[in-house]
Amino acid sequence: MDSAPNLGAARPLTLTTNPRLDAALAEGWPAWAAAARATGATAVAGWLARRADEPELRDEVLPLLRPALAMDDENGNLDHDAAVEARIELAELLEGVDDRLTDALWEGVLAAARDAADGDAVAEATGRLAALAENHGDPRAAAEYHIEFLNWRRQEEAASDPEAVETAFAEIVRLAERDGNPNAAAVYAYRQAAFSRLAESGDDRAVAGDWERDPAPYAAWA
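Predicted structure:
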């Protein structure tokens, strides 16, 4: 997985004419996506451009909003690949412009990627969300994103490049040390070493399914 960029602080945002979207954004991706679908892509594009005080953004984001906001049809079908791609493009376009919306969009990427069983996109979204959390001074919250990725990856139907698992372990160790918890760092370093040996042996569990003997999910430190 590519390392997440230093997103830095977003530029000051202006007041918008849609407080419903503003309020929903504070609740995260599901609430904002529902409000945005009810509002309509054209109006959302205008809201976003006004929020960022960048009128030219309206035309850039409009073609991405429709697939990004798509939802299951009456038969439960959704083009998850198109949704993932559109949400990634929107999130990258808004990096450094609107961190709160960027964070919500990466949450949306994560949700669609899990539904699509797209391990690469799940890992990418995890890294971006963790970077945002760390940039806001919360290394434990950042680590929790990586722990959540490992727990997802350990599910029977989940698969990913073993390097994504190695990266998640390494980030958890680094973040535990930054958070002043050497015990947690040691625990996850031990788990990483065990996974590395398994991957080097060519065991299929390094690619798909649970590699641990104990099925209990990983947990963050208190």
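Summary: The mean pLDDT is 89.
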